[in-house]
């Protein structure tokens, strides 16, 4: 208590000092006020073995010309209690930005690729997958509770600039939540990995037959499917919600905008298409059980090679992996590590620390200026999973935030170290 009091007085003294210094330089370090908005999604209903894969349009979001400083979420029940992953597995939540025609009301639960072009324009991130694939602004899965998403000062993700919204449209946000109720599951991991046999599914959500050899993944655990539950298991139906927290500041010229890139280890980039490089991101893949003969290592290692259209300074990096994930690393053309992200596995029962689940991913916050990607540089993404058992429908996405330029002060300090 005493030390907090002293700290507060000290802070106050600093502020008074800063405000009373008649030099504009001192004023510039006064940070814009960070605001926090907490929202709750529409409800989804789950019972043992069931799946919700919901699309919500025009969801609550901070309005106006702002810079997003962080975005995170978690599944809660009606009383606001966090729900642990061993009851409701959060496969993912994804937040996308779009322009909706003024007056257009999105039909509930529709897929946005069914909308008319004149009603709906998805605003994807800066790259690099094909079409709208991996085009989201934010997205995490089971790791949501313990993954740092803070964008450091003076950087921010610029949204809501009225000057860029086409006339007759409004900027809106969509939320996709995919959750699986594994209470009483015969094979909990199998349900979370969307194994088709456990869901007794042979067609995808559009009624198309699954391709031969498809053993598991999102095509087998779409909205309304049912994973096998132990006979006689009784569990109540319950109403659940995604509670999401957005931190943001009002836009100002002192904020440096960052671009969002998402790389995908399944990307089969086709460079023979020339300048119009074609990407083929498949998002999911399977890990076969295999252990190396020469050592007792059981590691499945995959990589993809992607070209960064325009470079910049890496401000933040994080990967998304599923259970079994060991590490994901993004390398530059010369082999330098741009960022390496490691899963954190839970050890107990509580929400945020569930044993056997990835409850967080480590992140990278390089000193701004220390990690630079050149225009047209070829990057390599390496994803390692444990292959001591088979996994279906795993992922390896790598998010980075990239700034085109640095604040003047850090350019100066960089110069002075040369
Ligand atoms: C699996 O699906 C088939 C056809 O859709 C159905 O006949 C069968 O009863 C289902 N099996 C189980 C265990 O639900
Ligand atoms: C790569 O792109 C070229 C040019 O567009 C095309 O002819 C070729 O079939 C593509 N290759 C693959 C494997 O898709
Ligand atoms: C990934 O696994 C391979 C094969 O075991 C190993 O050589 C490599 O060092 C690993 N990379 C990372 C980033 O863990």
From TrEMBL:
One Pfam family recorded for the sequence: SURNod19
Keyword annotations: Signal
Top-rank lineage group of the source organism: Eukaryota
Ranges in a coiled coil: none
Signal peptide range in chain numbering: 1-26
Keyword Transcription: no
UniProt KW Signal keyword: yes
Annotated protein name in UniProt: Stress up-regulated Nod 19 protein
Organism listed in the record: Pyrus ussuriensis x Pyrus communis
């Amino acid at each position: 208590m005493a030390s907090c009091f002293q700290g507060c007085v000290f802070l106050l003294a600093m502020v008074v000092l800063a405000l009373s210094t008649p030099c504009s330089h001192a004023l510039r370090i006064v940070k814009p006020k960070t605001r926090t908005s907490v929202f709750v999604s529409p409800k989804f209903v789950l019972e043992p073995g069931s799946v919700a894969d919901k699309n919500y349009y025009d969801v609550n979001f901070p309005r106006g010309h702002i810079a997003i400083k962080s975005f995170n979420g978690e599944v809660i029940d009606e009383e606001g209690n966090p729900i642990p992953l061993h009851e409701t597995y959060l496969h993912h939540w994804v937040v996308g930005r779009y322009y909706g025609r003024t007056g257009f009301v999105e039909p509930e639960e529709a897929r946005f690729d069914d909308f008319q072009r004149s009603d709906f324009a998805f605003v994807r991130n800066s790259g690099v997958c094909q079409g709208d694939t991996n085009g989201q602004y934010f997205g995490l899965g089971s790791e949501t509770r313990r993954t740092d998403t803070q964008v450091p000062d003076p950087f921010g993700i610029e949204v809501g600039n009225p000057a860029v919204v086409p006339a007759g449209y409004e900027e809106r946000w969509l939320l996709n939540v995919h959750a699986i109720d594994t209470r009483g599951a015969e094979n909990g991991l199998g349900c979370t990995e969307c194994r088709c046999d456990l869901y007794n599914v042979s067609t995808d959500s559009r009624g198309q037959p699954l391709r031969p050899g498809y053993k598991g993944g999102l095509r087998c655990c779409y909205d309304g499917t049912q994973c096998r539950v132990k006979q006689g298991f009784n569990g109540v139906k319950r109403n659940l919600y995604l509670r999401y927290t957005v931190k943001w500041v009002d836009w100002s010229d002192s904020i440096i905008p960052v671009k969002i890139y998402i790389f995908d280890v399944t990307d089969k980039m086709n460079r023979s298409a020339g300048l119009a490089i074609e990407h083929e991101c498949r998002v999911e893949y399977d890990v076969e059980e295999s252990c190396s003969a020469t050592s007792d290592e059981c590691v499945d290692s995959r990589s993809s090679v992607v070209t960064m259209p325009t470079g910049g300074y890496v401000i933040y990096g994080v990967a998304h992996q599923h259970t079994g994930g060991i590490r994901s690393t993004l390398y530059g053309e010369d082999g330098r590590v741009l960022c390496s992200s490691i899963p954190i596995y839970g050890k107990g029962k509580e929400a945020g620390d569930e044993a056997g689940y990835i409850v967080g991913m480590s992140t990278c916050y390089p000193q701004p200026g220390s990690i630079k990607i050149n225009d047209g540089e070829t990057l390599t993404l390496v994803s390692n999973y444990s292959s001591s058992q088979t996994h279906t429908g795993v992922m390896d996405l790598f998010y980075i935030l990239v700034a085109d330029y640095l604040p003047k002060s850090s350019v100066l300090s960089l110069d002075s170290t040369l």
